[in-house]
Amino acid sequence: MVALSDSIFMSAEEYLIWEPTQEKRYEYWDGEIVVMSGSTRNHNRVSGNFFKILDDSLANSSCEVYIVDVKVQVELGQKYFYPDVVVTCDERERNPQLIQYPCLIIEVLSPSTEAADRGKKFAAYRQILTLQEYVLVQVAQPGVEVFRCNEQGKWVLSDYSLGDRLLLESLNIEIAIAQRLPPWGIADLYKQVQFEVEVTHNS
């Protein structure tokens, strides 16, 4: 995301009417319009892989998974964000323009967005009462961080890397982070992703 050089401010009602008519995607931060920056091939591939795995796994459930172009209402009238992948299983979802009751949000990290994804975005996402898991995915090398909301309302971190299997408790879905295939290549979540550095299994 990138703040506009000449900041634009409008009400949430104006934003929800104006934004769908734009060629680019814009998030809404307490009245300020923030344009979404483009992504790399690896970023796009990882987002697509995660979406496909979840979409296939949820095909026979009441849950719905969306990628990139569907925004989430983080705070009514205050914040509307575009996560890379979002899942909702809530029968109250009725708005065709946005998701209001997500259980899982996934952000694929990039240098321009990582600080916000870890910081103020995560702080805002934690205010969503239905959200159970928040996932951050690395693209420089295989690595996934999952923050889960426990029974005490505390967010607990679990790390996963090459060779691990990720359990998404909110959906009861297990995913292989990555596994090396002969003679080369990484499958599963990182299928067709070309890493800049050699990656190895954990010892």
CATH architecture name: Alpha-Beta Complex
What percentage of residues falls in helices of 4 or more residues? 10-25%
Q: CATH H-level name... which superfamily? A: tt1808, chain A
Uncertain segments are 1-5, 182-186
Write the layout of secondary structure elements.
Blueprint: E1 2-3, H1 12-18, E2 26-29, E3 32-35, H2 41-57, E4 64-67, E5 71-75, E6 79-81, E7 85-88, E8 98-99, E9 102-108, H3 114-118, H4 120-125, E10 133-137, E11 143-149, E12 155-161, E13 165-168, E14 173-176
Parallel strand pairs: 5-8, 9-10
Antiparallel strand pairs: 1-3, 2-3, 2-6, 4-7, 5-6, 7-9, 10-11, 11-12, 13-14
Structural description of this entry:
The protein has 203 residues and is α+β, with helices and mostly antiparallel strands. It has a single domain (40-190), classed as tt1808, chain A (Alpha-Beta Complex), CATH 3.90.1570. The chain is built from 4 helices and 14 strands. The chain has helices spanning 12-18, 41-57, 114-118, 120-125, and strands spanning 2-3, 26-29, 32-35, 64-67, 71-75, 79-81, 85-88, 98-99, 102-108, 133-137, 143-149, 155-161, 165-168, 173-176. Strands 1-3-2-6-5-8 form a 6-stranded mixed β-sheet, with no helix packed on it. A 6-stranded mixed β-sheet has the order 4-7-9-10-11-12. It has a two-stranded antiparallel sheet with strand order 13-14. The longest helix is centred in the N-terminal third of the chain and has 17 residues, at 41-57. The protein is globular, with a radius of gyration of 17 Å.
